[in-house]
Structure formats: C-alpha cells, structure tokens
Write the structure tokens for this entry.
Amino acid sequence: MTFLDYAVLLGFALVILGVALASIRLIKGPTLADRIVALDMMTVQLVAFAGLSALQSRNAAFLDVAVVLALVGFLATVCLARYLERRNAINREDRE
C-alpha cells in the first residue's frame, strides 16, 4: 500500500466521523437553523466521500457525482434558509 492509500483510508474514516457527528446535531437540534447547518455539513461530507471514492477507484465518474451532490446541496441549503427567513418574518409580524 502506498501513502496515498493510507491517506484515502484516513479520509474515509474522518468523513464517516463527520457524518456521525452531523447526524447527532441533526437529531438533537435544538433549533431549525442547527438542523439546516447539519444537513449542509452532511452534504459537504458526502461530496468529500465521492471525491475520496474517485481517488481510491481511479474512476472520474465519482467526480461527476460529487459535483451534482454539491449543486443539489447548495440549492437545498438556499431553499431551507429562505424558508427559515420567511418563517421568522411571519412570526415577527404575528407578535406585533
């Protein structure tokens, strides 16, 4: 095994650890904003996983998967942030 193989395996372990920690934050919350950030973090970790898979398998198709995941994750985060912003604006109007 080469140094790159060990580095990729360490990267996989750290990505799995990151997904596990983000899933804990996703479950515990306590706010909706925390859950949105946790989902975004999990998306970034999945993009990293796809990149590491491309390195390990020496197959560039995983890079396409990483790009698509990054785009979908970005759009989902923007949509959830807009939802949260509108929800907070409605709650502020109700209080007044």
About this structure: The mean pLDDT is 92. Residues 6 and 65 are 23 Å apart (CA to CA). Residues 61-95 form the longest helix (35 residues).
